[in-house]
Amino acid sequence: MKKRVLVATGGGDCPGLNAVIRAIVKRAAQTDEWEVIGSIRSFDGVLNEPSEIKVLTEDAVSGIHFRGGTILGTTTKGGPFAWPIKNADGTWGKADRSEEFMRKLQYLNVEAVINIGGDGSQKISQTFFERGLNVIGVPKTIDNDLSATDVTFGFQTAVQIATESVDKLVTTAASHSRVMIMEVMGREAGWIALHSAIAGGADVCIIPEIPYDPELITKHIKRRYKNGKDGFAIVVVAEGAKNKYGKQVVRESTEVGNANLRLGGVAYQLEMEMKEAGLESDIRVTVLGHLQRGGVPIAYDRVLASQFGVKAFELVLEGKFGQMVAYRHPDIISVPFTEAISRYNFIEPDSYLIKTARGLGIHLGD
Ligand code: F6P
């Protein structure tokens, strides 16, 4: 009987997830000793009754490397340590099903787990590792906010989508002499915003790492207009941006089992603040949203994701558990979970990326 490795994708989806899954399966198939199974919607597939498990043969993953999303499905809700349960009074509570999860893995003959997910998922990996589970992590997020790896797959695809959107906004902005504000994702980090602002030639870029002053932005934008009417401006703003008073636009999630605060809407706040600061030009807002996570991964992300998948399975072969794979140019390495989840990846204010933006005359709101 073959040894079994279980693969799961957790948290928000991200272009490149399928390329990781395919790489794990292809590398495992070279051994003749391992079978790969997938848990549907992160670890829910193991916990659900009946369990939802998919055997991942080479045929099952053939040609999936360029498909967006994840063939295993994913979830941002609950998980083995905080499983949503409905109380008798109709309210929702949480149950810890982690021991049951471990028992079910034994029953399924799972010898190792590869958990593909962001920092939340890797915290779960670390806790299971401390309880004796043989687990390997693969980082994923379009936000590029994990410090242990130079870059995460999905990020460059999101940047490409955001940059193409800036290109499109330029032509309509120029035709109407408008100010276009485009809001992008990224949570507490401004990576997608800054990269797409530089690549797209934006006039202003607002990131969470630098609190913004709407009056300074307004002055800068006014200079982009001749005689007060001929001109246009493109503003890229990251969803996690804060104004100089520290105000961030967030909502509590109302989804059962989803503890994340929902970011989004800062572009509308900025529009109002610029009008209050005396900007008379027409302003239009585009919130790019989940378009940044959809569709096919660009080649760069397919390659990185494939490298992560192969490396993750090699760590299984080596029995090197409690590790997350990471990219440190030019190598694919592994780092302990404790290191992987210890530090958030902010853009450093003195980084060359910031210097480049300033050198290009992009106003950063300060
Ligand atoms: O972490 C990835 C991300 O796309 C963030 O950029 C964004 O804030 C969040 O997920 C959106 O989450 P959801 O898919 O739950 O709306």
Pick out its properties:
366 residues, Rossmann fold, alpha/beta, 12 helices, 17 strands, binds 6-O-phosphono-beta-D-fructofuranose, seven-stranded mixed beta sheet
Major sheet description: 7 strands, mixed
Overall average pLDDT = 96
Radius of gyration: 22 Å
From the coordinates shown, what is the CATH architecture of the largest domain?
3-Layer(aba) Sandwich
User: What portion of the residues fall into strands of 2 or more residues?
Assistant: 15-25%
- What is the succession of H and E elements? EHEHEHEEHEHEHEHEHEEEEEHEHEEHH
Q: Please state how the strands of the largest beta sheet are arranged side by side.
A: 3-2-1-6-7-16-17
> What is the count of distinct domains?
2
Low-confidence residue ranges:
none
Which term fits the overall shape?
elongated
Number of strands: 17
Spatial separation of the terminal alpha carbons: 63 Å
How would you describe this protein?
The chain has 366 residues and is an alpha/beta fold. It folds into two domains: 184 residues, 3-Layer(aba) Sandwich (Rossmann fold), CATH 3.40.50.450; 147 residues, 3-Layer(aba) Sandwich (Rossmann fold), CATH 3.40.50.460. It contains twelve helices and 17 strands. The strands form five sheets. The protein has a seven-stranded mixed β-sheet with strand order 3-2-1-6-7-16-17, sandwiched between helices. Helix 1 packs across helix 10 and helix 6 crosses helix 7. The longest helix has 22 residues. The N and C termini lie far apart (63 Å).
